[in-house]
Amino acid sequence: MVDAAVGFQCPECTKEGARQMRQGLLPYGGIPSRDPRLTSIVLIVINTAVWLLLSGVHSLGDRLGLVPRGVCLAANDPASYYPGVLKAACVANGDNWAAGVASGAWWQVVTSVFTQVNFIHLLVNMVSLFIIGPILERVLGRVRFLAVYAISGLAGSATVMWLTSPEASTVGASGALFGLMGAILLMSYKARGNYRQVLIILGANIAFTLFYVGTISWQGHFGGLVGGLLAGWIIAYAPRARRSQIQLYGLSALTVVVIVAIAAQAVMLA
Fold it and tell me: Of the listed 33, 112, 169, 221, which one is catalytic?
């Protein structure tokens, strides 16, 4: 053991810490971002651009929001739809079919994460992203931060696919944001930081979600939170030896599991 400022450290730990300091690496192997706010700003710009596009072309909302199976819209009243009607019967009856993931609109599992309902929805989510995004990127670096964000968003979409009505449309970055909060909570606990404060904030958001069940997609929030916790666990608890390689394999495997879950439900709904 090596005498340290507080207690003792194993020689291997000391060597690894010195190596990371020499290479300028972050605690979990990431490369420090020159501006930890930049990634969040780019994501905010993308979300805002999509919202502005939808404001001018309202019909795009049906194509970008996540609908697990699809919806049969009445030909004489596009604002109305026929529940439980499948694509073949809908088209045969002369009505309009709005495709969902199971009927070929696979991109919705991604585009829904960048689509917001209205300006207030956009504002709340983007302010939240600007606050919590840079916090996590300072710890993980840009690549790992984006990995957590993407996996959380996909995990939210997977949960929506399984637990939401096949004809319901879901949009919003909240699932990915819940994933970021889950990862911050796990990192705080791992570093023995003030994780209780993070837990209180996360708990308040969960309570708010449950209070507005029916208006807010608890499925997307829950799935995103679980995805962020799992991605954060893989990053934080990967052994120091071959850390980057293990993180890559672990995050890749988690992504595959989430995609398989989405595909499996799409097949069942088709």
Answer: 221
Q: Is the pTM of this model over 0.90?
A: no
Is residue 76 very low, low, confident or very high in pLDDT (cuts 50, 70, 90)?
A: confident
174: annotated active-site residue: yes
Distance separating alpha carbons of residues 31 and 108, to the nearest angstrom: 32
**DSSP states of 151-195:** HHHHHHHHHHHHHS-TT--B--SHHHHHHHHHHHHHHHHHTT--H
CATH 1.10.10.10 for domain 31-65+105-269, yes or no, is no
Q: Which of 174, 188, 244, 252 is catalytic?
A: 174
Q: What confidence score (pLDDT) does residue 1 get?
A: 42
Arithmetic mean of pLDDT, 136-155: 97
For the stretch 10-23, pLDDT in tens is 555 555 555 555 56
Measured between alpha carbons, how far is residue 13 from residues 1, 16, 17, 24, 240 in Å? 10, 5, 6, 16, 9
Active-site residue flag, 221:
yes
Instruction: Break the chain into its structural domains and give their ranges.
Output: 1-29, 31-65+105-269
